[in-house]
Amino acid sequence: MTIVQVAGAALSFRLDWSQNHLLNPLWHPHAKFHGALLLFMLTGVAATSLWSMWRLSREPQVAVRMAALLSLAFWTPLFYITSVLPGSTSWAGAANADPRITGSIVTPNLVVALGFTIVNLTVLWMARDGDAGARERARQASAAHAAS
Fold first, then answer.
1. Domain boundaries, the chain
2. Quick one: which H or E segment has residue 75?
3. What is this structure's pTM?
């Protein structure tokens, strides 16, 4: 998860702080503001997730799950924003020049988002055993307390 958090923030800055995104003179100044705001928010969330995962804790699996869920909260909207915001597009290039695979639009940022989504879902799946163990220990402690 450390790599996912660092790579997500770093790649987002690398790809979006460029001529085809935030530095594009055709972008409205307020759109640039919101784009930059989102990048800094992502970096803050990643830093908070890193702190949560690396601090001493009796429940480290909670921090890992939180980091994965926060990361998913950033990456998954890339798949549906164009459906809920008419006139929006995931393609930052020239209109009608969007990349296609077998006729379907497949933009590079959606490929990146898919990669991060798969990794985060895998982490959540792997972390499920840790939560089950914590629940079992809590149940045993409760049963022992009730018996005494």
1. 2-147
2. helix 60-75
3. 0.74
